[in-house]
From TrEMBL:
InterPro entries: ChyE-like, Class_I_gatase-like. One of its GO terms (cellular component) is cytosol. This is Glutamine amidotransferase domain-containing protein. Transmembrane segments: none annotated. It comes from the Eukaryota.
Length: 148
């Protein structure tokens, strides 16, 4: 399921980010990162960009970093030992309710709570920003109560 105009803006921003990095020749510091994909790829993004994982990677990755995708919506998550070797996590958007008790969401929330407690970097997008523990000191609230 696509997101329409918003989807196009996201993928256009990803393409611009790739071009900007190529022009600047940015150098990353390494690290290992995972996208926890919480929804299926839309047909458009799959055909145009290879999927949402590639969009996130184009926007966020720096030279020398290792990135991989776990399809959380299908129950694919890193095990404890594997997660310990990952420096940061990106939790994608989803059409699902972040507070539902679907088995994959319960497992995702558990993983994110443990990784947050371990001091890992976590970026949540849309659905993903609702998943991490809101009481965490690593999340800021603006004056209107919006979690950023």
């Amino acid at each position: 399921m696509g997101m329409g105009p918003l989807e196009n803006a996201v993928v256009d921003a990803a393409a611009e980010a790739v071009a900007a990095k190529a022009a600047v020749g940015g150098v990353g510091v390494g690290g290992s990162y995972a996208v926890l994909q919480c929804g299926e790829d839309s047909e458009y993004v799959r055909k145009a960009y290879g999927g949402y994982f590639e969009v996130f990677r184009a926007l966020l990755a720096e030279d020398g970093e290792r990135w991989r995708v776990y399809r959380a919506v299908r129950g694919e998550l890193p095990g404890e030992e594997e997660a310990a070797g990952i420096d940061g996590f990106v939790i994608s958007g989803s059409c699902s309710d972040a507070h539902a008790d679907d088995p994959w969401i319960v497992a995702l929330v558990d993983l994110i709570r443990r990784q947050n407690a371990a001091g890992k970097r976590i970026l949540g997008v849309c659905f993903g920003h609702q998943v991490p523990p809101p009481s965490s000191s690593s999340f800021a609230m603006d004056t209107k109560g919006v979690q950023v």
